[in-house]
Design a protein that fits this description.
The complex is a heterodimer of chains A (211) and B (149). With 211 residues, chain A is of the alpha/beta class. Chain A has 6 helices and 7 strands. Chain A has 2 domains: 1-43; 49-207, Glutaredoxin, CATH 3.40.30.10. Chain A has helices at 2-41, 49-61, 105-121, 140-150, 161-166, 195-207; strands at 76-79, 84-86, 94-100, 126-132, 156-158, 175-179, 185-190. The relative contact order of chain A is 0.17. Chain B contains 1 helix and 12 strands, in the order H-E-E-E-E-E-E-E-E-E-E-E-E. The chains are: A alpha/beta (211), B mainly beta (149).
Chain lengths: 211, 149
């Protein structure tokens, strides 16, 4: 009797495991299909509220750790001018942590947007920290020159592996984390997204926590 | 066990690591006339959906494709010809043309070989992107057995 009951439980568990595996495989296939479609089209996701969530899902698939809702990992880095800058210096502000590199063409495309959005929202307590993912031996003068040529008006920091690791390794550029006034991450994106989406995430960060 | 399996499937990153964006396709071995200037074709393939900057990128900040070759006795690589890049632009910035390689591309290596078997060892340095994001620069190994006859 006891054996029969145990066998029934085993069958139920095996069936449950099978269903979960099928579901997991299907969900994974769906996400891959979305990504493949985006690649095949070679386009940015259109700027609709509906597609924004798709973009976030795709971003999650592109190797980003899901840090949304979690406290942004603290870091201290040197700016390209040699000044020590910590994330905690911006306590109470909404912060966009933007990982970029001089060799990253999509990063350059979004930089003018970031400059203009910083101008627009700095008065409300918004700042951008641009973390360079260039090689460690890249001369700081080169980064300074790059910032000047692009007309960047926000702090450019010399990144290091320890900070990248805290943010999931930052395998793709650009990668951005939007930190609310309470220090928690409200949005994250991997790859170039539309200016509207960047602005929406900034507004979200400004509206979250703090004052 | 089951939970672990599902987690592994779910968390597998979709995009390629930089090392897989470009592959050295062929040749593995090639025969050339000994002691005479000759050239061999080196075939590479860029993964679907990706591109790499050509040997002559459209702007100075971008990292060009480069081939470095290790000097070897009996084998002298005089130079390498890169094909011209094709134009590519991200849809959001159609006016910014990039010079890139996609799909298969071929480098022509000019060399002379002494009689016998030699190994051309080198590395292709490149920086790959897809339609919206970029991977860090990377170098893949290139190895060709060159038989001077």
């Amino acid at each position: 009797m006891g054996d029969v009951k145990r066998n029934q439980w085993v069958i139920v568990l095996v069936l449950a495991a099978f269903v979960l595996m099928v579901w997991s495989g299907y969900a994974n296939y769906k996400r891959r299909k979305q990504y493949a479609q985006r690649q095949a089209q070679g386009t940015l996701v259109p700027e609709t509220a509906n597609n924004q969530s798709v973009q976030q899902d795709v971003a999650a698939d592109e190797g980003l750790p899901n840090l949304r809702g979690k406290r942004a990992p603290e870091f201290s880095l040197r700016s390209v001018e040699g000044k020590k800058v910590s994330l905690s210096d911006y306590k109470g502000k909404a912060v966009l942590i933007n990982f970029w590199a001089t060799w990253c063409a999509p990063c350059k495309i979004e930089m003018p947007w970031l400059v203009s959005l910083r101008n627009q929202y700095a008065g409300q307590g918004f700042e951008i920290l641009g973390v360079s993912e260039d090689d460690a031996d890249t001369p700081r003068a080169k980064l300074v020159k790059f910032g000047q040529e692009q007309g960047l008006n926000y702090p450019l920091l010399v990144g290091d592996d320890s900070v990248s690791r805290k943010y999931g390794g930052v395998e793709f550029l650009p990668t951005s984390y939007f930190v609310g006034r309470d220090g928690k991450i409200v949005a994250e994106t991997a790859g170039l997204v539309s200016k509207n989406e960047v602005e929406a995430s900034i507004k979200k960060a400004l509206a979250t926590g703090g004052k | 066990m089951l939970v672990l399996l599902i987690q592994v499937v779910k968390d597998r990153p979709l995009p390629l690591p930089a090392a897989d964006a470009v592959q050295f396709v062929s040749p593995v071995q090639v025969s050339v006339p000994a002691r005479r200037a000759t050239e061999i074709d080196l075939h590479f393939r860029v993964a679907d959906g990706f591109h790499i900057n050509s040997h002559a990128p459209s702007e100075k900040w971008l990292i060009p494709a480069r081939l470095a070759v290790v000097e070897a006795p009996g084998l002298n690589v005089i130079g390498v010809d890169f094909p011209p890049g094709t134009e590519f632009a991200l849809q959001v910035a159609p006016q910014q043309k990039l010079s890139v390689y996609t799909g298969e591309f071929v480098l022509h290596a000019h060399l002379t070989a002494q009689p016998g078997e030699h190994v051309l060892v080198g590395g292709l340095h490149y920086q790959a992107c897809d339609a919206s994001s970029c991977l860090p620069p990377h170098t893949i190994p290139v190895s060709v057995t060159v038989v001077g006859q």
